[in-house]
């Protein structure tokens, strides 16, 4: 847990015209570590993840993967699971996983992993269901399974629990714990403080694009007078 840093973000800034969505953000994530991004709506969490994934270009600052700048990385380093589960309407659940594997240039060894992911996410009995016929929760499960077919050193998740029922949320937490043991660096934004407290090694609380508190949950809870809940800490620093 928390091995050598494979993701280092320094002074990240991203503006949209006159609005500064991310304002000088700096943090690091080690291999086998799960970092939770917390913050109110509009804090800059999604913009941060898009910058880390290379889908938005920062105005300034740097994002380094394993000691190399983001724009110089080679091969597939990062997987992003977005908040809105967009699936292909005319592909089946299983075909989404096939598409993901072929897009990443994987050999045939991905099939066993794909079957295991579908089983864990309760998708096996829907493997031949078209995307257009899936509920929001099943679309989210399909997107998660397809995203995890190809193992990458870094996994980014934007509100992954939204749309999942309690069973799905619990299984996703278990999957993330397994990825931690496999040395994957995970950055997850969430509004579900209980999930963050249960799974994250550290949390970074954002407000107006800046980091206002970062550290292990146990340390953050002890900073006030006596023991505070994570919710109390969150409300205090984002007030």
Features:
single chain, 239 residues, alpha/beta, 6-stranded mixed beta sheet, 4-stranded antiparallel beta sheet, 10 strands, globular
Write the layout of secondary structure elements.
Blueprint: E1 5-16, E2 19-30, E3 34-38, H1 45-52, E4 60-65, E5 68-69, E6 78-81, H2 93-103, H3 110-120, H4 136-148, E7 154-158, H5 166-181, E8 185-189, H6 193-199, E9 202-207, E10 210-215, H7 217-221, H8 230-237
Parallel strand pairs: 3-8, 3-9, 6-7, 7-8
Antiparallel strand pairs: 1-2, 1-4, 4-5, 9-10
Helix pairs in contact: 2-3, 2-4
For the biggest sheet, the summary is:
6 strands, mixed
Number of helices: 8
Q: Roughly how much helix do the residues carry, as a percent range?
A: 25-40%
Shape: globular
Strand content: 25-35%
Distance between the termini: 32 Å
Strand order of the largest sheet: 6-7-8-3-9-10
SSE order in H/E notation?
EEEHEEEHHHEHEHEEHH
Please mark out the parts with pLDDT under 50 across 5 or more consecutive residues, or reply none.
none
User: Can you give the mean pLDDT?
Assistant: 90
Q: Rounded to an integer, what's the Rg over CA atoms?
A: 18 Å
What structural class do you assign from the helix and strand content?
alpha/beta
DSSP E strands, number: 10
Give a written overview of the molecule.
This protein has helices spanning 45-52, 93-103, 110-120, 136-148, 166-181, 193-199, 217-221, 230-237; strands spanning 5-16, 19-30, 34-38, 60-65, 68-69, 78-81, 154-158, 185-189, 202-207, 210-215. By secondary structure, it is an alpha/beta fold. The strands form 2 sheets. It has a 6-stranded mixed sheet, sandwiched between helices. The chain has a 4-stranded antiparallel sheet with strand order 2-1-4-5, with helices on one face. The longest helix is centred in the last third of the chain and has 16 residues, at 166-181. The two termini are 32 Å apart.
């Amino acid at each position: 847990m928390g091995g050598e840093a494979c993701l280092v973000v320094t002074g990240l800034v991203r503006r949209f015209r006159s609005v500064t969505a991310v304002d000088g953000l700096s943090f690091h994530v080690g291999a086998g570590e799960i970092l939770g991004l917390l913050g109110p709506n509009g804090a800059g969490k999604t913009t941060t993840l898009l910058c880390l994934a290379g889908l938005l270009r920062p105005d300034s600052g740097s994002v380094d993967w394993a000691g190399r700048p983001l724009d110089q990385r080679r091969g597939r380093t990062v997987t992003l699971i977005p908040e809105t589960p967009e699936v292909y309407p005319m592909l089946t659940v299983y075909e989404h996983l096939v598409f993901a594997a072929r897009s990443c240039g994987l050999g045939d060894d991905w099939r066993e992993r794909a079957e295991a992911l579908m089983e864990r996410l309760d998708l096996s009995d829907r493997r031949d269901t078209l995307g257009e016929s899936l509920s929001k929760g099943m679309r989210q499960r399909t997107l998660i399974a397809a995203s995890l077919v190809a193992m990458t050193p870094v996994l980014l998740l934007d509100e992954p629990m939204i749309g999942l029922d309690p069973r799905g949320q619990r299984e996703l937490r278990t999957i993330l714990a397994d990825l931690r043991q496999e040395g994957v660096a995970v950055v997850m934004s969430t509004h579900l403080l209980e999930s963050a407290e249960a799974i994250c090694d550290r949390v970074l609380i954002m407000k107006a694009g800046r980091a206002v508190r970062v550290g292990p949950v146990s340390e953050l809870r002890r900073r006030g007078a006596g023991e505070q809940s994570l919710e109390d800490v969150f409300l205090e620093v984002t007030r």
